């Protein structure tokens, strides 16, 4: 029903698929939408730009990434009104048809302020962009991370990152699998503004990283070269509670923090 109505108001099959996907996902780069609709990225970008021209999608930019964000569904009525000169006899019928599915369209769309913003970054450059965002943090970063994953993926980048974070006066509380590299890196905790906890690798080994700061959650998959940035106060608060639980448990498991018992004579 909804696709038939959108087709009747002037959108072709691919435009409808791209538009509805963007409506569901919210603000995203063309690459993410392309993967979801299984249409080549350049073709998807062309379709998105056409939808921008028609006024149903807005093009924005964030951190050097071009994003496409759906306009309110009622803008489709404006699209029809702009055609009234050429379609006087049919326009009212089309508006009526659109009104009949408006509730469904609006149920898929919520204002940006009331739903999480999710941005995807790909490749080495994308991973660096994710980390560059942490250098703007207004609070202590909280993190679960594998030094092997971080340094294995971007060895040159981290040679300067820690110094720049300290220069920006941003501390971090971090939990890491207990490995030789983690032991070596955490020896520099004081000068790198880090408060670390090491947990048994044989029980709690992981490679991706999760960071929490400024109502943001960043998930970094080093092996898949993918960074996901989620902006949501509600999700941030919930994940923060889970981190504090993990931090408390990690503190009790960190062998470096256990007092050395005196030997019996």
Structure report:
With 265 residues, the chain is an alpha+beta fold. The chain contains eleven helices and nine strands. It has two domains: 2-114, Arc Repressor Mutant, subunit A (Orthogonal Bundle), CATH 1.10.10.10; 117-257, Endonuclease Chain A (Endonuclease, Chain A, 2-Layer Sandwich). Helix content is 48%, strand content 19%. α2 packs across α3. The longest helix is centred in the middle third of the chain and has 21 residues, at 88-108.
Strand content: 15-25%
Number of helices: 11
CATH superfamily of the largest domain: Endonuclease Chain A
Q: If you average the pLDDT, what whole number results?
A: 86
Please write the string of helix (H) and strand (E) elements.
HHHHEEHHEHEHHEHEEEEH
Question: What's the domain count?
Answer: 2
Q: What is the helix content?
A: 40-55%
How many distinct beta strands?
A: 9
End-to-end distance: 85 Å
* Named CATH topology of the largest domain: Endonuclease, Chain A
Largest sheet: 7 strands, mixed
Which structural category do the helix and sheet elements fall into?
Answer: alpha+beta
Give the uncertain stretches in residue-range form.
none
């Amino acid at each position: 029903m909804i696709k038939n109505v959108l087709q009747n108001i002037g959108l072709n099959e691919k435009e409808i698929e791209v538009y509805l996907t963007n409506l569901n996902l919210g603000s995203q780069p063309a690459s993410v939408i392309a993967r979801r609709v299984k249409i080549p990225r350049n073709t998807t970008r062309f379709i998105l730009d056409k939808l921008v021209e028609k006024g149903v999608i807005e093009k924005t930019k964030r951190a050097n990434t071009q994003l496409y964000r759906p306009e309110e569904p009622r803008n489709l009525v404006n699209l029809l009104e702009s055609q009234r000169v050429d379609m006087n006899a049919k326009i009212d019928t089309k508006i009526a048809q659109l009104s009949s599915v408006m509730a469904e369209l609006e149920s898929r769309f919520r204002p940006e302020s009331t739903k999480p913003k999710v941005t995807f970054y790909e490749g080495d450059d994308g991973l660096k962009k994710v980390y560059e965002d942490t250098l703007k943090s207004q609070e202590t970063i909280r993190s679960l991370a594998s030094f092997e994953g971080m340094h294995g993926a971007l060895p040159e980048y981290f040679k300067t990152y820690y110094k720049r974070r300290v220069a920006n006066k941003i501390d971090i509380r971090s939990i890491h699998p207990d490995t030789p590299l983690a032991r070596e890196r955490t020896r520099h905790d004081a000068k790198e503004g880090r408060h670390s906890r090491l947990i048994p690798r044989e029980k709690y080994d992981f490679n991706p990283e999760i960071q929490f700061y400024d109502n943001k959650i960043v998930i970094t998959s080093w092996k898949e070269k993918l960074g996901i940035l989620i902006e949501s106060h509600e999700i941030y608060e919930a994940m923060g509670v889970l981190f504090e639980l993990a931090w408390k448990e990690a503190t009790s498991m960190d062998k470096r923090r256990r007092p050395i018992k005196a030997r019996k004579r």
